[in-house]
Amino acid sequence: MASAIRKIMTYNADMSQPLRELKLRALAESPFRFFRGTCHLFADDFVKLYKYKPKTTCWMCGDLHLENFGSYKAENRLVYFDLNDFDEAILAGPEPELCRFLAAFIIAAGAMKPAGAIGLHKALHDIMETYITTIQARKALMLEEGVAHGVFRKYFHHLGAFDREAFIAKRTEKVKGALLLREDSEHLMHLDSARKAQIYRGLQPLLKVKRFEHLVFEDAAFRIVGTGSLGLNRFCVLCYSKRKGKRYLLDVKESRQSCYTGQIKVKQPTFRNEADRILQVGNIMQFNSPAFTAPAYIDGKWYVVKEMQMIEDKLAVAGLGADFGTLSAVGRQMAVLTAYAQIRSSGHMGSDTADDLKRIADKKQWQKDIIELSAEMARRNTKNYRDFTKQ
Predict the structure, then answer these.
(1) CA dist 347 → 86, 92, 136, 358, 363 (Å)
(2) Beta bridge pairs of residue 223
(3) Is there a contact between 266 and 91 (Cβ–Cβ < 8 Å)?
(4) Which of 8, 25, 224, 368 yields a CA-CA distance of 20 to 30 A from 212?
(5) DSSP state of 113
(6) 3-11 vs 39-50: helix axis angle to the nearest 10?
(7) Pick from 34, 39, 8: nearest CA to 260
(8) Per-residue pLDDT reduced to its tens digit, 272-311
(9) DSSP for residue 316
(10) pTM surpassing 0.85?
(11) CB–CB of 67/36 below 8 Å?
């Protein structure tokens, strides 16, 4: 068995057999989904190939790729489009974050057949240049609905026109007069009453927090979504707000340590637990956080709680078809959002300043090295994917 395959099996060994099989099937779906689900392989290879010893530190989400951006409603009920997954977040340098994003772009472009190697090479340099220019400005802004265009305007429109009742109705059904989650074995799976009670007990302390205090937990189901986190415990909880007279869906996701833990030789700040790490880093990197975010302790494990968003509000690479021009435009805008997040979080919890980020971004050889390494990481992903699907 190839080394990469052994690492995948070891990394997912703690999962139950049905969930592990579900994840392995997902990894076999496409090279891009394989890349999404094997951040631990990327982390290991990057550190070894780059001989990584960061001289400038910043916060990174740790798993930056095209589908880890999305639109969501914050506590103020305004719509934002931003980075939205911080499971692998860690204090490091900008290099692994950028390299992973560019490698993801190369892999996604491989299914689109851009205008030869020259077209792909230019797109990568344009994305890097966009990132560098934004870092050099040292000012963290946000992507606003009024200036969003192309696919980004669509995502703002989706959530701006959000029909809460229709969203809830699609995922629920009346059973003996009670509204319950609709279990379809594809997105939501059955939980027995004892497990539901366990989840409600774990969420009970949240009811003392102002934004949760009027909620009543009505039902819960096991949630199947994502790729990297697929196989972890993840639940959907149906809630009713007595104060607002509205229902909400909560996403309750198990937290584990970052796959970069032990790989990155940077002293990390102390967090209370892994959910606290994920939430604190998200809070300083995002312009505004999704609604109902909080940590929860359920049956000996920590979870991140936040309001469940529509799956359609994550950018899906498959939805771009063969449009390399749109992919390139998306890549440039996401480079801007990445730079904003790094500038916004600079100087927080041990990270260096925006001035420090600018100094490293100014180095031409550094930029060239990251682009070249991203191509090598994409090549390795292709080889690992082929080995994985042949086994």
Answers:
(1) 18, 13, 16, 13, 21
(2) 188
(3) yes
(4) 224
(5) -
(6) 130
(7) 39
(8) 999 999 999 999 999 998 888 999 999 999 999 999 876 5
(9) P
(10) yes
(11) yes
